[in-house]
Amino acid sequence: MTELNTIRFHRLDQQNKTLVIASHQNASPELVYFGDALPKATELDSLYLSQQAGIPQAMMDQPAAMSLIPEAGRGWMQSPAVEASAADRPAWAMRWQLKQIEELADGVMLTLEDSTAQLVLMLDIGLLPSGVLRQQLTLTNVGEGDLSVERLACTLPVSPELTERVSFYGRWCQEFQQVREPWQSTWLQENRHGRNGHANFPAVMVGESGFSEQRGEVLGVHLAWSGNHRLKADYTIEGHRYIQAEALYLSGEIHLANGQSITTPELLASHSREGLNAMSHGFHREARERLKLDKPRPVHLNTWEAFYFDHDMTKLKELASAAAEVGVERYILDDGWFRGRHHDEAALGDWFVDEGKYPNGLSPLIDHVKNLGMEFGLWFEPEMVNPDSDLYRTHPDWALQLPQYEGYLGRNQLVLNLANPEAYAYLRERLFDLFESNSIDYVKWDMNRDYCQSGSDLAPQAHAQVLALYRLLAELNHAFPHMEIESCSSGGARVDFGILNFTKRFWASDCNDALERQSIQRGFSYFFPPEVMGSHIGPDQSHTTSRTHDVAFRAGTAMLGHLGIEWNLLDANPQQRATIANWINQYKRVRGHLHEGNNWRLPSADGRAQTQWALSQDGLTGVAVYSQLAMPKQGQTLPIHLPNLIAEQSYRVTVLEHSPLPGHLMKAKPAWWQRELILNGASLSQVGLQLPILDPESLILLEVTAVPLSENNE
Ligand code: GLA
């Protein structure tokens, strides 16, 4: 019999979403509801009662609740929230009792305890102003003896009607690929790469049968953590569905002495009844809250694919001048500038300017860049050390490796043990010195290998490594508040909200091939807004796929993120430079809408094209990039529909840029193409707009602007 008078309900409302939690005196708390806003006057006890199911035959007399903290000790026969053990008491079958409730501004903190296991567990759960649900657990050992913690997982119960699942996979140069499957079995993603890796983006999306970008109930769940993790989507024999997300602890990694605690990373979840685009809007709002950008995203030029390790001051300066001419605003000197770094086999760890390449330091280049009106950025890979480096020769014990075994290299390098205070202090000193003695506005913070042997003593230290990294980034942000840090990891192998707390941009992929980028960027966009996605115009022939694309397709694709150039402009002909300058101009004109408005993914019905649509928050200006990715399945282009415009408002449709329209697929262009088209929002969204027939791998950039009422009446 459900005793309602022993239950307390906690309700939160944000962004048309409602979250209701039930806390119990003698059991762990439950999620009563997370979804579209409920009326203010909803009776929460009746709501709770309405969900209490019957007890099936052939099951436990008192089946375990689908709680936010599933308890092995109360009959939960799947993975519980906590798995731990101690030598001096049973600490593996907890039954939590509520000890304290603290109402917070945007959530509630519930403190639970188990006096037998001698543990205290705090659940911090709430609804952020973005409408995103946030959850974290903290486990404290209050017993005398040590506690070994095997698992500590956030659990999010999910509606049993969400029966399809999209998860992510990928590889170097092809990150954020999606796979859609029926949710009929346990789904598990275990990441033991130390970083997230290219294949294990820590997120999953579930939805009702047939959900799409614009339709259906969906839930996206993300773990804000840059290291080993476990994500699980499972269901019980009774019919409960849930998602668990946790930092994965390696064997023997987490020991808590008396009074010590461990906290999970945040689980973040965004809900929508209108498909994946609205789910993404929640995550985009959340990312923007954390980013707090105070100026438009400057156009980048990155030297990597232009020169690799071949740093020649004259050429570097010439490239800077050429970049400034086409409108670049920030120049980033990539790998190859520090002592002994002439290839990728040596020098990581020796963070001193290379005297051979830069006899007068970096200042002559920095001054040149700044005199051209650009900001200056510099590449680092601080967490690494090459065995062939002065640092390693002096401190081989600072690398994460077991002395009993031979080291295991990745890109010829080892990981520096940041949990070692001396190694941390060395690195901190080197970075602070370089940032204090050079005018550096931007850091590309790279990380180019997985961990193995992630410890140098009895226990692994992969978890401590991530925490030390976060601490170092926080210290740098505090000391150099105007310097932006980008997170790069062989492209997009470390993209998550954990590191986003300290960084302002992700390098989404080392692949600058615009066709591959379209799918990489689409996958990236489910959880992150375009302004944090580094996206560059590469050379004519892609360095990673050998495909060739015209400048328009490359530039229009790069424009869908934070635009940059990664191409030796000195090789570009005047015509190409002029085209790039045009695109950069357009980007500067519309980046406000792209980066502050809402963004939609709109696939064509034949699956061969996609439109990226960005609409300003006031609904008055929109930008659409229509990309023809493959041959259309039919002769004509399918109309594009532009959602969320103001229904009665008239808009002018302008073509800003487009790929060449050679005519071999098309005798005549659409009737409106060479005229002015003015149409109301309802028509543009419900009826749509015909576009010219395009070659595969080409695109069109359109602007849609509200026509002022006076002009409309003329
Ligand atoms: C990684 C990055 C690249 C580049 C190189 C430099 O691969 O992803 O963008 O910075 O390192 O070594």
TrEMBL record:
Superkingdom per UniProt: Bacteria
Active site: D446 (nucleophile), D510 (proton donor)
InterPro entries: Aldolase_TIM (IPR013785), Alpga-gal_N_sf (IPR038417), Alpha-glycosidase_related (IPR050985), GH (IPR017853), Glyco_hydro_36 (IPR002252), Glyco_hydro_36_N (IPR031704)
Keyword terms, alphabetized: Glycosidase, Hydrolase
Gene Ontology terms, MF aspect: alpha-galactosidase activity
Annotated substrate binding sites: W172, D334, D335, R411, K444, W445, D446, M447, N448, C488, D510
Gene3D superfamilies found in the cross-reference section: Aldolase class I, alpha-galactosidase from lactobacil brevis
Domain Glycosyl hydrolase family 36 N-terminal: 29-252
Reaction equations catalysed: Hydrolysis of terminal, non-reducing alpha-D-galactose residues in alpha-D-galactosides, including galactose oligosaccharides, galactomannans and galactolipids
Pfam families in the cross-refs: Glyco_hydro_36N, Melibiase
EC numbers, comma separated: 3.2.1.22
One GO BP: carbohydrate catabolic process
First-tier enzyme category under EC: hydrolase
Entry's family note: Belongs to the glycosyl hydrolase.
Name of this chain's protein: Alpha-galactosidase
Species: Marinomonas posidonica (strain CECT 7376 / NCIMB 14433 / IVIA-Po-181)
